[in-house]
Write a structure and sequence with these properties.
The complex is a heterotrimer. Chain A is mainly α. Chain A has 3 helices and no strands. Classes of the chains: A mainly alpha, B mainly alpha, C mainly alpha.
């Protein structure tokens, strides 16, 4: 029990770092499907952090929303439109001619 | 007699946790630099199975069964993530 | 006396399963980084799912059944652990196979070291729908 406390601190710090890096990758990613998967990875990393901070009720809601519902809704929306993000409108090309 | 006491048991489980922490670092590297979409989904999958192990170990260390509730939904929602992505890859639409 | 020996055996079997799972998980993680292709990384992910998820959960359930200082809480923890292990071994191979099927049908990864690919030939002949 004495030795298990620093392991908990290491786990919280490590998985908070994972979540930070995955959030940054979600922001700068051009492919929208990959961005959704990065966001699902961030939700998975937050699961352990919330458990280590003794909030298992938040884990149930966070996993269901962050991994399940969020991914399903965004993949549904992306499948109806395009799966790519454009910097400016000139790259769209022939979209205006239709 | 030969059963180790509480602090020794938690020390051994902490050493086992170190192995899983090292493995999760490698999985995270594959998740960040994965060249294609299925690689990243596979990495998220295996990372979530590791997290279930972490949650059970923490629940044993705290002697509280309420903390281990999150392990089962984590595994089941990771399976559904696989299903969503494979259905998106096959049909390119997720309607029905 | 007899129950103590059984307790000790169950505890050490669980500890061996946990450490074996940790070593297999580390090997799978290294293999995940060193393989070149998605279809090759699928082998490493299988070891990571069964060796790194199923074995340690069974081992932790066996360990928590024998710990006297946990009181009656050990049965709850063991039940959750065994249930998670059961659903993991049920759902992880199905998810891997579904992902491989989706990758092969959408053709975003070429199966690189390959001799013959009957499924793709049948798709090109039009025997099965794409």
């Amino acid at each position: 029990m004495i030795l298990s406390v620093p392991v908990c601190y290491i786990l919280i710090a490590l998985f908070m770092t994972y979540a930070l890096i995955l959030t940054y990758k979600t922001m700068i990613e051009k492919d929208l499907v990959k961005a959704v998967i990065y966001s699902a990875g961030q939700a998975v990393a937050y699961t352990l952090v919330l458990t280590l901070l003794a909030a298992p009720d938040l884990v149930l809601a966070y996993v269901a929303v962050g991994v399940g519902m969020y991914t399903a809704l965004f993949l549904f929306i992306i499948s109806r439109t395009e799966s790519k993000e454009y910097d400016n409108l000139k790259e769209l090309g022939g979209m205006n001619e239709k | 007699m030969l059963m180790p006491d509480q602090s020794t048991t938690m020390f051994l489980l902490s050493i086992a946790t170190g192995l899983f922490i090292t493995a999760s670092i490698f999985y995270f590297i594959r998740l960040v630099k994965g060249p294609t979409l299925p690689d990243m989904v596979l990495a998220v999958d295996v990372l979530s199975y590791d997290l279930a192990v972490f949650i059970i170990i923490f629940s044993i260390a705290c002697n509280s069964p309420l903390l281990s509730v999150g392990a089962l939904p984590l595994v089941l929602w990771a399976y559904l993530l696989d299903m969503y992505v494979s259905k998106y890859l096959i049909r390119k639409e997720l309607g029905d | 006396m007899m129950s103590e020996i059984i307790n000790m055996l169950v505890f050490y079997i669980g500890l061996i399963l946990v450490f074996l799972g940790g070593i297999l998980d580390l090997l799978a993680a290294i293999g995940m980084n060193r393989f070149k292709n998605f279809y090759l990384r699928l082998h490493a992910a299988t070891i990571g799912a069964i060796g790194g998820g199923f074995y340690p959960l069974i081992g932790l359930g066996l360990i928590s059944l024998t710990l006297d200082w946990m009181g009656t809480n050990r049965f709850y923890v063991a039940g959750i652990s065994f249930t998670t292990a059961f659903f993991l071994v049920l759902t992880a191979p199905v998810g891997s196979h579904a992902l491989a099927q989706g990758t092969h049908k959408s053709r975003i990864v070429e199966p690189e070291p390959i001799v013959v690919d009957r499924l793709r030939e049948d798709e090109e002949k039009g025997l099965i729908e794409k």
